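Give me the fold.
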Amino acid sequence: MKKIKILNKKRFVFFVAGIAILIALLIWAVSCAWDFIARKTELNRAGKEGEVKTLHLMVQINQPKGDPEIIAQGFQRGDIVLFSPEEKEFSIAEKEGFLIIKVRLTEAQANLLTSSFANEQEKFDPKKELKKTDEIKQKPLRSYFVDLEKIGIAKEEERGKVISDKVFEWKEIVKEK
């Protein structure tokens, strides 16, 4: 058996390191793409469960102001707060504080749109001692949001309103965070 001679060991090390980095980047890109496809597929799959109905979505229209750490724990502009049947009458406070729109989707999709990241977040363990270097990462409250600009809501518009004359298709206005 013939031995392979490496003429320039430094160059060979850089070559191997480069190949390892390329493989790591490829694995990372595939996992990101898989996560994106899985989430879209999850929402599409939920669209096949049950009957497509026109439901009301109550959407956060104003961007909260104040301490960024506290704001990160609540609803953001465009977050879907809740869904309800088309027949529901909203209070004056709800009409003035939120955007209320009609969207065609199944109840399973509506449940996904209003599901929280909380079940994915790391549970607090009082026995575990936090070090100063430990970071508590706050994930968004919702996985999906309504693209308000596609509905015709300007960025500076923060007063609630009801859009009852149009029924939106979820694929047109719902985006993933």
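The chain has two domains: 8-46, 53-121+136-176.
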